[in-house]
Amino acid sequence: MSSERVLVVGAGIVGAAIARVLARAGREVVVLDRGATAGGTSSGGEGNILVSDKGPGAELRLTQRSLVAWDRVRQELRDELPAGFPDLELDHKGGLVVATTDAGAKGLREFAETQRAAGIVAEEVDRARAFELEPDLTRDFTAAVFYPQDAQIQPVVATEALLAAARRHGAEVRQGVEVTGGVHTGGRLTGVHTTAGTLGADAVVVASGPWSAEVASRLGVVLPVRPRRGTVLVTSRMPYRIRRKVYDADYVGAVGSGSADLQTSSVVESTAAGTVLIGSSRERRGFDDRIEARVVAELAAKALLLFPFLADAQVMRAYGGFRPFVPDHLPIIGPDPRLPGLWHATGHEGAGIGLSLATGDLIGELFAGDRPENEFGLDRPGLAAALDGRGAEGER
Amino acid sequence: MPEVVVIGGGPAGMAAALAAHRRGARVVLIEASDDVGGQYWRHLPAARATADEHELHHGWNRFQTFRNALRDIEVVCDGHVWSVDRRDGRPPRVHVLVGPADGQRREARTFEPDALVIATGAHERTLPFPGWDLPGVYTAGAAQALAKGERVAVGRNVLVAGSGPFLLPVVSSLIRTGARVAGVLEAAGPVQLARGWGSKPWRLAKAGAKGAELAGYVRDLARHRVPYRTGRAVVAAHGTDRVESVTISRLDGNWSPIPGTDSRIAVDAVCVSHGFVPRSELAIAAGCRATNGIVDVDGNQLTSVPGVFSAGELTGIGGVDLALAEGEIAGAAAAGYAPPPAAARARDTFREFAKRLETAHGIRPGWQSWVDDSTLVCRCEDVTAGELRATAAMTGTRGLRSLKLTTRAGLGICQGRTCGRAVEELAAGPAGLLDAGRTAHRPIATPVRLGELASLREDPS
User: Fold this and answer.
1) In this structure, what DSSP letter does residue B186 have?
2) Hey, what domains does chain B have and what are their CATH numbers?
3) What are B105-114's pLDDT values in tens digits?
4) Is A311 found in the same domain as A162?
5) Which of A324, A355, A372 is the last residue before a domain boundary?
6) Are residues A320 and A282 in the same domain?
7) Are the beta carbons of B401 and A39 separated by less than 8 Å?
8) Which of A149, A313, A379, B130 is 20–30 Å from A115 (CA)?
9) Do B453 and A310 touch (CB under 8 A)?
């Protein structure tokens, strides 16, 4: 099947990881994006590779695969990228989850217990150890759990690196090309119409993040993926004082929530460039890209609960992104049983940077036919309601 | 009585505030510095005022008239608009922090005006060249600000270079503060200049005041024997601790240096300016449509957002007279009135002038060929042209957002205000960028301390 031609729709990190895996396997791969590379969700977040926010289950298992994959791929990329390629800034800095109330402490401890049972390293730390890990942490906390496996990566460099590696294995990346419809032959999807003409394909993988529902609908199917807005604040450069990824224990609840209302909880971390990133809000309001003062103020206030010293830090930038949200909080990965030839790789919500590699590997295995079972298929029970029209939930 | 908020206390904003006030609107004028006047009428602080301001300022009397008239209007000085929240079908909510720029507990004020006039002006554009980061190399605007605001000359033997008529008042300011000006280099050559200024010159006659102002500067050049040469540029600055000499090249019509025309001259300071870039972040955050960084407006100076008007350099670089005319029209329209006929006529005249300005002095892409790989482009984040070009080639991206994040160009404290356009132009490969204009997206319009932001939540004023 080495002559098989695959179109990947979306030049974000998930599409990039898939393109690299399939091109390495000798397939002819063309990546299409209506915009530029790494221009959507992949450049709108923080670069999280997290286990700390995930309870036991399919997503955590995919994350554990990804953690291993990132170390492997980092090595492989050394041979695949030209000298001087920007650094991935992959940093296994660990995450520190902090509760500031008694109720939060109880919830955090219980959650960490379930994670430990699933093989995650989650060490509850005492005050001395917490301040050793994070000297400027607030003195007002009730419990802290350290997750040494949490890591950070520069998401745009990572996306471009995977795309560059895919190109090196023969993939083609076409920017500014928008999919406008599907070519159907005998009940199969055999290509796409685009703003740059019609392209034939043996398979089309939609990896368009929060825009996947629209692409899928142009190809003739319904996909229950919706945008969930996030906003991140960036400070000016400052002396290095925040060493880990530090979260408010509320973060875990917000990630798992399906509510459309604004939710914020602190995620604070330094970047290699010397800035501090402050996230993150979650809000479902379509593709409305406004950055609002109320959200900015809320994020600022929550960040100060973790690090009071930040009160003097200058926020110089805010940016936003749209996470691909799926009602049951699991990504959709694999062939679409309703339309042969169509594949999906989307719905990673805020975890797509971390999960991209395992997603690419899974797609590669499914293409090769050496993985019969798939927890992320569209036919899973959790999506039944959304797919038969009962799961609209009155949202945009 | 409609409430009109005007952002920006330069000529356009002052004219808008007055025009709206005279038509019965309740007006609040927000100015980020400690006094109105803008860059054009920058002056010594009141505490150190001198009797000779008029010598350094063109139209100083006109400014005094404006300032006196503004007494009946609420003027918020040190007012930093850090965010505007778009609202459907109405002008945005305007969030202001009042107090010194790096202050700690500034007063937060929020406005929900019936009409908003955005007159935030422009910042200077300076094309990079090898050595432009040496001490002693100034933007022409910085040199003029030092001369006008501090009465300090930037050097004893100063070369002024770049493009556009703004170089001339800078020379006059330098001379007034005692510097020797070694010469003025205009990058545009005779053909480009003639295309802008030479065709149908009678159409310029109505812009007489402008001509008289320029004639005054030219007299200064002659009196002080300052040579003015066209089709030339500073293509490198040299020195160890500070600039000691510069390389000058003749340019072709595309602004590419002509090989074999280099010469080196000794200077102790260089002032460089290549025109202006509209300060469009608030207009863009408010949702106003813009074309090539210029905010689109109709005959009433109305933007694409209902109730939001714009005037001055933001709607096209044209100088003080155009700014005053547009400001008056915008202010009248914000208060619900038609454009005053005299202002509308003046706007037409000075728009013609602005068009010629762009034709005669507009930046040509050949400048990129004097930028070598070691030239710093983004000075906040230390990104060289070589890094930018190499990364663009390695990633093959057509996205400015991607390139900014892989090189950090434009991500520093100035948020691309200095380097944004240069980064965009250097980053655009043969196929062009798919997200050009991105460097003007700054939803946080000015840095704000987290503590101040956090207190806004507890006190929604």
Assistant:
1) E
2) 3-123+277-339 (3.50.50.60), 126-274 (3.50.50.60), 371-437 (1.10.10)
3) 899 999 999 9
4) no
5) A324
6) yes
7) yes
8) A379
9) no
Is residue A87 in a domain? Answer: no
Chain A residues lying within 8 Å of B396, measured CB to CB: 37, 163-164, 167, 173
Provide mean pLDDT across the span A302-315.
95
What pLDDT is stored for residue B458 in this prediction?
Answer: 56
Considering CB atoms only, which of B85, B95, B443 is closest to A318? B443
Predicted pLDDT at A251: 64
Same domain? A136 vs A237: yes
Report CB contact under 8 Å: B396, A167. yes
pLDDT at A392: 44
pLDDT digits (tens, 9 = 90+) for B244-266: 999 999 999 999 999 999 999 99
- How do residues B448-460 score in pLDDT, each as one tens digit? 999 999 998 854 4
> Does A393 map to a domain?
no
A25: containing domain: 5-77+155-224+328-387
Task: Identify the domain boundary among A324, A354, A369.
Answer: A324
Q: Are residues A14 and A52 in the same domain?
A: yes
Could you tell me how far CA B71 lies from the centroid of its own chain? 27
Residue of B nearest to A236 (CA): B413
Same domain for A306 and A274, yes or no, is yes
Shared domain for A233 and A310, answered yes or no, is yes
Q: How many domains would you assign to chain A?
A: 2
First vs last C-alpha separation in chain A: 41
Q: What's the rounded mean pLDDT across residues A52-66?
A: 93
- Contact assignment for A311 to B448 by CB distance below 8 Å: no
B448 touches chain A (CB under 8 A): yes
Note whether A100 and A217 are same-domain residues.
no
Higher pLDDT, A103 or A31: A31
The answer to whether residue A344 sits within a structural domain is yes
pLDDT tops 50 at residue A393: no
The CATH number of the domain holding residue A235 is: 3.30.9.10
Return the pLDDT at B58: 64
Q: Which residue of B lies nearest to A310 if distances are taken between CA atoms?
A: B450
CA of A294: which chain B residue's CA is closest?
Answer: B457
> Quick check: B442 contacting A, CB < 8 Å?
yes
Of A164, A299, A318, the CB nearest to B394: A164
Which of A40-44, A334-338, B47-51 has the least mean pLDDT? B47-51
Lowest average pLDDT, out of A50-54, A321-325, B143-147, B181-185, goes to B143-147
Are B397 and A37 in contact (CB < 8 Å)? Answer: yes
Kindly determine whether residue B402 and residue A314, on different chains, have CB atoms separated by under 8 Å.
Answer: no
Mean pLDDT over B42-56 rounds to: 61
Residues A284 and A253 in one domain: yes
CB contact under 8 A, B450 and A294: no
pLDDT of residue A165: 98
**The most confident of B87-91, B243-247, B407-411, B453-457, by mean pLDDT:** B243-247
pTM confidence score: 0.92
CATH code at position A22: 3.50.50.60
User: pLDDT per residue over B96-145, tens digit each?
Assistant: 999 988 777 899 999 999 999 999 999 999 999 999 999 999 998 889 88
Does residue A89 form part of some domain? no
